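In the design runs reported in the main text, the only information available to the sequence generator was the tokenized backbone. The following block is the verbatim input for one such run; it is reproduced so that readers can re-run the procedure and compare outputs position by position.
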């Protein structure tokens, strides 16, 4: 299995470039989760003690896919705009 995408340095910046880098990174991790049925790297991006709103449903869906032996080929996305 390929390693999960690494976070770029800008991910931790609150400036616009950092917000875009974080959005791109989350989408890269989402694609990784779909390709590998592994939601852990995406879930690890949650801030604080509360998981992201979509992480638990995604983990359940991926567990079901893993049991059935299939994945999704997700070619990726382009982040053009981030609204906070």
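Verbatim output:
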């Amino acid at each position: 299995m390929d390693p999960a995408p690494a976070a770029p340095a800008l991910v931790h910046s609150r400036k616009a470039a950092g917000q875009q880098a974080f959005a791109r990174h989350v989408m890269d991790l989402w694609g990784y989760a779909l390709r590998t049925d592994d939601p852990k790297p995406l879930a690890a991006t949650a801030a604080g003690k509360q998981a992201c709103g979509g992480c638990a449903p995604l983990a359940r869906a991926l567990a079901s896919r893993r049991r059935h032996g299939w994945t999704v080929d997700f070619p990726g996305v382009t982040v053009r705009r981030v609204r906070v």
